[in-house]
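thought: user wants a sequence for this fold. calling inverse folding tool.
action: design(structure=
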């Protein structure tokens, strides 16, 4: 059994195990915090005695007689999600090489997470009038947001080739599904902002599943049906990767298990691609690797939520056990280290539990705007608006979970005011209240005493700043600095639900520009590649969205280019 000690982690050394061929690297494998006195006496130092996290421990190899069959292909792709499907299809289409695409879920249970595909300059967008985006401008904004920690070669591929990749992706989508696909934030409202607080935003998201009759799982079912046309591509469901196999330094295949507990071997003549998704369902990995989000948790108030889709990090674990190096911590996550105190328009005022304003409410989209809320006491948050929200909500950006100022969405806010006023103290049952004056609203929201006094002082101060057109307290852009003086008034009472609630993780294994996984010495591991949320160095420390859906968009794009590379190699 391969195991990595704290000393291994600090030194970057490698322990061997699994058939004498699979290596386990310690980078990112954080030790347990407590050490037994017996272990300390044996080793002499705390570093030597520290235990490893269980996810760093590779499983025992499977007995040969337990492996019922062996399949050989040129390329083996583990995971039929956005990235894995794109990789397998691209490689098979662009070459005569044999490709096996393995999916852990049984076919009848297959679902795929996500609705948005964020990209630039597809012919589809151009045909619908969406302006072209300068890829270099987009690239530089991305690298600024990631603090220059993203892999520049990978991000430039995404910036320059995502349009091509998405047009290619859509070729396999049936007409009846294409007809229901929408473009988010389009048509673009005249009040929408292209830039705020130094961050830029663009339109470029095609979408299913958000209110229309079809969803992304249906799209992938249709794509899977089309893959049958490729004689050199085999899609196999109910095959979960257990561990990789190696011959010397090279990765040569994977051992999988099915739902019945039967083991299968898949050998790769040329490449194994890890595209098995993220690790948001492994709370130990989350604690060890997503340290920023973990450090935002407050005892007795917030904790890790149960993740969507049960993504257990198996692909990343297999890569680590095979000698792959993780990108430097903290690894990023989508949500988890920020809180959204209200509906997403940042044109109101955010107050803490004591009724004090504490941040710029419109510092980009919620992935950045919501960070201060995760770093104060998280018992309760308050947000206040006035009736001008029916107009001011149109001042939005096209970012993650932002308000899309389409006619129906604006009408919904107007209806919410009317219904809230009618409901009185009962509110809407989800923490939103409407009243004709601030005193009554405070009563409905449960704000009293000193907190109410602070609330009234905060409103008065905010209105002074808005009238002056300069937010001297928190630097809010004057274009979204609106007075709160027109009744009826709306208030939102929110808990810290988003803190610790991670949709997916977006950090993973380090690679070169070809997505070839790097080992401890930062040299490529022969035969091993990563894609999608197994692939590191896309976002740096935290997720962001200059276009909604950039996680899925980059997964499809980099899967497409990886498949092309494998076809040509």
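)
observation: tool returned 569 residues.
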């Amino acid at each position: 059994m391969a195991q990595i000690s704290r000393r291994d982690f600090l030194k970057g050394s490698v322990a061997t195990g699994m058939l004498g061929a699979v290596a386990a690297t310690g980078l990112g494998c954080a030790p347990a915090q407590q050490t037994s006195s017996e272990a300390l006496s044996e080793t002499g130092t705390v570093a030597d005695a520290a235990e490893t996290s269980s996810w760093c421990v590779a499983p025992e190899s499977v007995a040969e007689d337990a492996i019922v069959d062996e399949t050989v292909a040129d390329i083996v792709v583990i995971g039929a999600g956005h990235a894995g499907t794109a990789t397998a299809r691209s490689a098979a289409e662009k070459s005569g090489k044999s490709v096996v695409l393995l999916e852990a879920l049984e076919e009848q249970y297959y679902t795929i997470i996500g609705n948005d595909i964020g990209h630039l300059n597809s012919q589809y967008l151009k045909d619908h009038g969406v302006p072209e985006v300068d890829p270099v401008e987009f690239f530089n904004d991305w690298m600024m947001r990631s603090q220059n920690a993203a892999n520049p070669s990978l991000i430039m591929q995404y910036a320059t080739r995502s349009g091509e990749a998405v047009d290619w992706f859509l070729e396999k989508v049936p007409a009846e599904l294409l007809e229901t696909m929408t473009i988010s934030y389009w048509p673009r409202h005249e009040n929408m902002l292209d830039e705020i607080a130094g961050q830029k935003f663009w339109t470029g998201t095609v979408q299913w599943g958000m209110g229309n009759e079809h969803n992304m799982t249906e799209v992938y079912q249709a794509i899977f049906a089309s893959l049958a046309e490729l004689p050199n591509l085999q899609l196999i469901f109910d095959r979960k990767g257990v561990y990789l196999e190696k011959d010397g330094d090279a990765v040569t295949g994977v051992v999988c298990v099915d739902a019945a507990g039967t083991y299968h071997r898949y050998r790769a003549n040329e490449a194994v691609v890890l595209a098995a998704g993220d690790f948001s369902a492994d709370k130990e990995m989350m604690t060890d690797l997503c340290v920023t989000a973990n450090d935002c948790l407050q005892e007795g108030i917030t904790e890790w939520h149960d993740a969507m889709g049960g993504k257990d990090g198996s692909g990343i674990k297999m890569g680590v056990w095979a000698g792959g190096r993780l990108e430097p911590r903290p690894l990023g996550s989508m949500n988890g280290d920020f809180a959204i105190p209200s509906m997403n328009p940042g044109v109101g005022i955010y107050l803490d539990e004591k009724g004090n304003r504490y941040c710029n409410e419109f510092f980009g989209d919620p992935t950045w705007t919501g960070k201060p809320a995760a770093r104060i006491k998280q018992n309760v948050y308050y947000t206040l608006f006035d009736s001008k929200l029916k107009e001011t909500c149109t001042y939005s950006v096209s970012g993650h979970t932002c308000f899309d100022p389409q006619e129906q969405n604006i009408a919904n806010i107007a209806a919410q005011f009317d219904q809230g006023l009618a409901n009185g103290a009962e509110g809407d049952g989800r923490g939103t209240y409407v009243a004709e004056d601030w005193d009554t609203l405070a009563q409905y929201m449960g704000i009293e005493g000193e907190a109410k006094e602070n609330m009234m002082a905060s409103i008065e101060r905010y209105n002074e700043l808005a009238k002056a057109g300069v937010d001297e307290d928190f630097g809010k852009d004057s274009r979204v600095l609106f007075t709160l003086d027109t009744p009826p008034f709306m208030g939102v009472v929110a808990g810290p639900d988003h803190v610790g609630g991670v949709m997916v993780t977006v950090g993973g294994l380090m690679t070169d520009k070809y997505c070839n996984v790097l080992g401890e010495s930062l040299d490529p591991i022969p035969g091993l590649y990563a894609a999608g949320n197994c692939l590191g160095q896309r976002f740096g420390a935290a997720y962001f969205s200059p276009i909604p859906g950039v996680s899925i968009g980059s997964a499809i794009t980099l899967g497409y280019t990886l498949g092309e590379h494998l076809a040509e190699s």
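thought: summarizing for user.
answer: Here is the designed sequence. The chain is about 30% helix and 20% strand.
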